[in-house]
Design brief:
With 428 residues, the protein is mainly beta. The protein has two domains: 343 residues, no CATH class; 63 residues, no CATH class. Helix content is 7%, strand content 43%. The protein has two helices and 26 strands. The strands form seven sheets. Strands 19, 21, 24, 25 and 26 form a five-stranded mixed beta sheet that branches. The protein has a four-stranded antiparallel beta sheet with strand order 1-2-5-4, with no helix packed on it. Strand 24 and strand 25 form a beta hairpin. The longest helix is centred in the last third of the chain and has 17 residues. The N terminus is likely disordered. The structure holds 2-acetamido-2-deoxy-beta-D-glucopyranose (7 copies). The site of one 2-acetamido-2-deoxy-beta-D-glucopyranose (NAG) has 5 residues, from loops. One 2-acetamido-2-deoxy-beta-D-glucopyranose (NAG) binds next to loops. It comes from Channa argus (Northern snakehead).
């Protein structure tokens, strides 16, 4: 009896093991060693119904050797688990190579007919003539699933940030390039090159696999120089690297009203705008405050995707904060964070809009400053008159919050530790 129960459990576990909900991969080039070998750091997210670890395999080129650390990211109550993989690869030269995930199954009954998962990353590390170093991929992330009621129009603007300042374009994967297996796009979602996905009302409910390829293009003609001296030329129409952005779009039953703030949660200040950029430095925590309301449904959860060291706190009804303290290893990088607020009404789940921000970790200001930091004789008080323009009315606390953000930005350029306060303010 006990034995058969155990077997049944094992069976259930194994049939549920392959419940893929997409992936994202990005990379940062590392050092070039004296022997011409190169290191690269690849950061990836793996989304499954239950926490699952996988490593990427070599598809083409010489992918060298790798060491991987896997960490658990956010796990939503019974819906999904996101794992973060940090892979450091050492490759013998800076020649391009491709990695892929290929094999198991997405969740059951995907409306656009996708069963097998496949995702491809093209890692380009040759020396770029315009920036005098190797390329960094676009930086982005996504939630494992994104929900929309079938009767509401909605746009999902993917985060698309390029640390090299390249132009980023998105497209659906191409089956003949083996970018997915197959790449049948979701009929209900149209994609624009600027990485905006537009959903129009439909009667075809259910889960759709969304398999996007994000690429960076140079802004001018450039050359790529390989370790052995060979040069390759690229024009602004040639992609440098490519990364996959894959997730599930759930088209849910219709909602009585598409107006945000009733059933669908609505973001309120000081929630940052989509694609907002934050600055901080190593060991200095950045706090992202998120506030949402829904009059009819009940807000239950903040769902997010970001560095696995991100800490969530709920600070009251519909109020959340995400706190992240970058470590030395993250210095100089830009890290994406995406979030939605989830609400429940009866047995229905309603998601807010998707919002994503990017946090840039600046280099620590050098400590050669001669300004004394203690004692009244070393303190300076500086008065500034500042004009803040905004499309909606902001409270004093919100304005202070934006000024604090400006301070983070300035500390990136070397502003020493200052305390900011509002002495008086006038609203027009
Ligand atoms: C998938 O569809 C089949 C056939 O319609 C059904 O039996 C099964 O329960 C569905 N699975 C899920 C997870 O909805
Ligand atoms: C890349 O090229 C620049 C000159 O364009 C050079 O200064 C730099 O050392 C090169 N980097 C590597 C890793 O070869
Ligand atoms: C897919 O890639 C092939 C080979 O490069 C190309 O000929 C074709 O036009 C592409 N299809 C689409 C829809 O872009
Ligand atoms: C860029 O390269 C293309 C193809 O090699 C060439 O036709 C074009 O004139 C170049 N553009 C500039 C601005 O150099
Ligand atoms: C450099 O390497 C590439 C491929 O790895 C090869 O095609 C090319 O011929 C090599 N160039 C030289 C000058 O050896
Ligand atoms: C979470 O928020 C509450 C209420 O503001 C606060 O008391 C608590 O210290 C916070 N916890 C963390 C870990 O920041
Ligand atoms: C900046 O100053 C405040 C107040 O003096 C202090 O609490 C904080 O630790 C300082 N931060 C840094 C990074 O030095």
């Amino acid at each position: 009896m006990v034995l058969s129960l155990l077997l049944l459990l094992l069976l259930v576990c194994s049939t549920r093991a392959n419940q893929f909900l997409g992936t994202v991969m990005t990379y940062y080039p590392g050092n070039t060693n004296a022997d011409g070998s190169v290191t690269v750091q690849l950061l990836y997210k793996l989304n499954f119904e239950t926490c699952t670890m996988l490593t990427w395999e070599c598809l083409s080129g010489n992918c060298g050797t790798e060491s991987v650390v896997m960490r658990k990211g956010y796990e939503s109550n019974g819906e999904w688990c996101q794992m973060e993989g940090i892979s450091t690869r050492n490759v013998p030269s800076n020649a391009p190579f491709q990695l892929w995930l290929n094999g198991g199954d997405w969740i059951d009954n995907i409306t656009n007919g996708i069963v097998n998962w496949r995702a491809v990353t093209l890692v380009e590390l040759r020396n770029r003539s315009d920036i005098g170093k190797a390329n960094t991929s676009p930086q982005t992330t996504i939630l494992p699933d994104v929900r929309v009621p079938s009767n509401c129009q909605r746009n999902f603007n993917l985060l698309a940030f390029d640390p090299d300042g390249d132009t980023i374009r998105c497209r659906y994967g191409n089956t003949s390039l083996s970018e997915c297996n197959p790449c049948t796009p979701p009929s209900v979602l149209s994609i624009s090159p600027s990485c905006s996905l537009s959903f129009s009302p439909t009667s075809d409910e259910g889960p759709y696999a969304v398999q996007v390829v994000m690429e960076d293009f140079p802004n001018q003609n450039i050359s790529l120089t390989q370790t052995n001296g060979t040069k390759t030329f690229l024009t602004p129409n040639d992609a440098i690297s490519k990364i996959p952005v894959q997730f599930v779009l759930w088209v849910d039953p219709p909602v009585p009203s598409c107006t945000e703030g009733l059933y669908l949660p609505n973001f309120l200040p000081p929630t940052p705008n989509n694609r907002a950029q934050f600055f901080t430095i190593v060991n200095r925590a950045i706090v992202i405050n998120i506030k949402a309301e829904a009059i009819i449904s009940t807000i239950s959860e903040l769902l997010y995707s970001g560095p696995s060291t991100l800490i969530q706190n709920s600070t009251g009804a519909g109020q959340f904060s995400l706190t992240w303290t970058p470590s030395q290893a993250e210095e100089g990088g830009s890290f994406p964070i995406c979030f939605v607020v989830k609400a429940n009404y009866n047995l229905n789940i309603y998601n807010s809009d998707l919002r994503c921000v990017i946090v840039t970790v600046g280099n620590n200001p050098t400590t050669t400053t001669t300004l004394p930091t203690t004692g009244s004789s070393g303190m300076y008080v500086v008065g500034l008159s500042v004009k803040v323009s905004s499309s909606s009315q902001q409270s004093k606390d919100e304005i202070l919050y934006y000024l604090q953000q400006a301070r983070y930005y300035l500390s990136y350029y070397g502003l020493p530790n200052v305390t900011i306060n509002i002495v008086s303010y006038v609203q027009h």
